[in-house]
Amino acid sequence: DCGAVGEALDMPVYAVGGFVRDLLLRQENLDVDLVVEGNGIAFAEEFARRHPCRVRSHHKFGTAILIFPDGGKIDIASARMEYYLEPGALPTVEHSSIKLDLYRRDFTINTLAIALNGKRHGELLDFFGGQRDLREKVLRVLHNLSFVEDPTRVFRAIRFEQRLGFHLGAHTESLLKSAIQMGFMSRVSGARLFNELTIIFKEANPLPAVFRLAELGLLPCIHSALTLGERKRRLFEAASQAVLWYEFQHPKKVLQRWEVYFLCLISDLDYRAVPTIARRLDVPARFRELLRAQRGQAHRVIRQLARRLGRDQEPRPSELHRMLSGFSDEVLLYILARLSDERARQWVAHYITHLRHTSIHLDGHALKEMGFPPGPLYKKILSLLLAERLDGRIHSLEDEIALVQ
Ligand code: CTP
């Protein structure tokens, strides 16, 4: 119905970018991007008067987001009407502003647009050979300065290349490589770099893109000590297995998969290098805390488990619980991926699927009713009971009461 709103406001409206690309590739894409020739915010507000949705506007950029009750979103941008005066001729306006908007984009495959109203209603606009490049499965920039203007496009190129199974056009590849060689990546702000990296880690299968980052020499742009040798490749593969296994076990849980892969990426960095990389990437506070506290702790547990293996000494369930209960699921999967021995992996997997769900019957209230004075003793009693229960020495409420008394 965007067309009708555009019609009413006399503003040409186009569906653009990734949405059109994926439509032609017959791939699902729920993010709709619109470009309005005129005032995009006015368009969004009119749309919201007619349909149940909220508008979030950014006046500085002339953009708005429509947010629907089911969580769906439509991004709206304004293409300014621009009049080109050729000497002695009338201004040529038709499509010039949508064309200019599309020209500013990263790759030809992202420059396709579908007109949603006006006399071109339903027409596919292809100014820069996007359809040909979709057919040929090739990524091409629109002009030579594309990567220089916006070096994050290097990451985007790798992401699209690997996700869509495309390849870089020869000229585009050489532009990309020279942007890297000429040090343009160092201009990218930490937050944008972190964003691009995590978007790659959130791909359905991020491994090929990660390996390609390394092949193109992009890891040292993030931190000079970052490498991707055979060992780390295997670690990434193990992490991907662990993630798949976990998601199969817990289909309803939302796992921050990118955190697992991020930990893999920096797995061999000295702990002193971690704050440096966190600063360079402007890592959000919550994740910085995870890197600071849980990462070191995880490495200690990995060493402990290795020692147990060395001594052929299986940890008791209560010991596993004590070692592992402080970690987030993401860190547990990282630990799982780091363990090369099948037996140790089984210990951790057993913790994730069973041990950590173990509970006891008694709680603080019950202890109070039994006459124990409230205080730190409660915690001790309860964790002792849990340990006994985990190790199979007690089984029922009666056992718990008997033990406490
Ligand atoms: N874009 C760009 N340069 C960037 C980022 C984005 O030119 N550094 C353009 C692209 O042409 C893209 C559009 O802005 O089509 C919207 O960006 P985004 O939503 O990130 O891209 P999608 O193509 O929708 O990619 P994805 O499928 O990964 O969401």
UniProtKB/TrEMBL annotation:
Similarity comment: family membership: Belongs to the tRNA nucleotidyltransferase/poly(A) polymerase family.
Lineage: Bacteria, Pseudomonadati, Thermodesulfobacteriota, Desulfuromonadia, Desulfuromonadales
Record keywords, A-Z: CBS domain, Magnesium, Metal-binding, Nucleotide-binding, Nucleotidyltransferase, RNA-binding, Transferase, tRNA processing, tRNA-binding
Any one GO MF annotation of this record: nucleotidyltransferase activity
GO BP, sorted A to Z: tRNA processing
Origin species: Trichloromonas acetexigens
Name recorded for this polypeptide: CBS domain-containing protein
